[in-house]
């Protein structure tokens, strides 16, 4: 445990753990609701990249798969490309079934500062709302929720 800022977001999705896992790890699905493909083989120790869908091949976030226990637990490090060794943050996706729903808890730890925590607090709710919409309705939200101006 560190004294660095962290952010936790919990969402409930009418789905199965396997479908939520796939939505987090399938590059084609993440491209639909996130605007980036999460690319990896998802084996512990493997590299993963958050690659833009504009055809540029640019990864805006990269890291290492720490834990991949399909369909309940995925832990990755997160860093800007080229900065992976310089104290990356860590994201944990905990997927817990309860009847016909899934509780998805995302914990983003070891953020560098309050500004990174504020960015996580703006980003995760938008991304996970879009994931929930895609899983439950078959389509993401009609506008990218992360583009909604802050209050």
How is this structure best described in words?
It is a single chain. The protein has helices spanning 17-25, 27-34, 114-137, and strands spanning 7-14, 36-39, 47-52, 59-69, 73-78, 89-98, 101-109. The chain has one domain (7-146): Alpha-D-Glucose-1,6-Bisphosphate, Chain A, domain 4 (2-Layer Sandwich). The longest helix has 24 residues, at 114-137. The N and C termini lie far apart (32 Å). It is of the alpha+beta class and 151 residues long. Strand 4 (59-69) and strand 5 (73-78) form a beta hairpin. Helix content is 27%, strand content 36%. The chain has a seven-stranded antiparallel beta sheet.
Features:
151 residues; alpha+beta; Alpha-D-Glucose-1,6-Bisphosphate, Chain A, domain 4; 7-stranded antiparallel β-sheet; 3 helices; 27% helix; globular; START-like_dom_sf; ASHA1/2-like_C; Activator of Hsp90 ATPase homologue 1/2-like C-terminal domain-containing protein
The poorly predicted ranges are: none
Number of helices: 3
The shape is globular
CATH domain fold name: Alpha-D-Glucose-1,6-Bisphosphate, Chain A, domain 4
- CATH architecture designation: 2-Layer Sandwich
What structural class do helix, strand and pairing data support?
Answer: alpha+beta
* Beta-strand fraction estimate: 35-45%
Mean pLDDT, to the nearest integer, reads 95
Biggest sheet: strands side by side, in what order?
1-7-6-5-4-3-2
Q: Helicity range of the residues?
A: 25-40%
Q: What's the CATH H-level homologous superfamily?
A: START domain
**What multimeric state do the chains show?**
single chain
- State the separation between the terminal residues, measured CA to CA: 32 Å
What's the CATH first level? Alpha Beta
* Cα-based radius of gyration, to the nearest Å: 15 Å
